[in-house]
Amino acid sequence: MAERSQTAPEAGYDIGNDDAIGGNVSKYLVLPSGYCGQPKKGHLIFDACFESGNLGRVDQVSEFEYDLFIRPDTCNPRFRVWFNFTVENVKESQRVIFNIVNFSKTKSLYRDGMAPMVKSTSRPKWQRLPPKNVYYYRCPDHRKNYVMSFAFCFDREEDIYQFAYCYPYTYTRFQHYLDGLQKRNMDYFFREQLGQSVQQRQLDLLTITSPAGRWSW
């Protein structure tokens, strides 16, 4: 399990440096600066190694605050919008502030009341965070780039919490949906494989017409 702790002066925030962000964090334990000993409840563990996950780097700014760096799109390093990660090993009533510090968009619905999604092990239904706890602003500490910050209070120690930009819709879920349509043998739906992506995923070509005997306008 990786361990890492950095304070703001040590972190060397350079969100234009892609070398500072590799793959997704995997069961990434963040310990307070100077701490020695076994991890305790409240020493957060971040993970994004799952389908649709995205979190490339975590810097601890203070006891309660964390700067989070998201990975860019696969084929375009200029676009950095999506995030989806889990947090565990929390302490009851632990309050945190998470800052997504390397968004590539200057305009966002987060400025107009949209809020990130959250769910947990015991509450598996996605819910939006209260908009009053979400802030989207230009930050002088990060090259005047736009940052989205949100405050959150963990309330159940045994839960694993998951945060996302909006409702995740994975490739696997989409494939299951197409499989279900194909099994219905509808005469106006035809599915064939067009090719494969650079990650060797199936690319589907869907042909949708009108049911027999009906006009399509």
TrEMBL record:
<protein>
    <submittedName>
        <fullName>AGBL carboxypeptidase 4</fullName>
    </submittedName>
</protein>
<feature type="domain" description="Cytosolic carboxypeptidase N-terminal">
    <location>
        <begin position="47"/>
        <end position="135"/>
    </location>
</feature>
<dbReference type="GO" id="GO:0004180">
    <property type="term" value="F:carboxypeptidase activity"/>
</dbReference>
<dbReference type="InterPro" id="IPR040626">
    <property type="entry name" value="Pepdidase_M14_N"/>
</dbReference>
<keyword id="KW-0645">Protease</keyword>
<keyword id="KW-0482">Metalloprotease</keyword>
<dbReference type="Pfam" id="PF18027">
    <property type="entry name" value="Pepdidase_M14_N"/>
</dbReference>
<dbReference type="GO" id="GO:0008237">
    <property type="term" value="F:metallopeptidase activity"/>
</dbReference>
<keyword id="KW-0378">Hydrolase</keyword>
<keyword id="KW-0121">Carboxypeptidase</keyword>
<dbReference type="InterPro" id="IPR050821">
    <property type="entry name" value="Cytosolic_carboxypeptidase"/>
</dbReference>
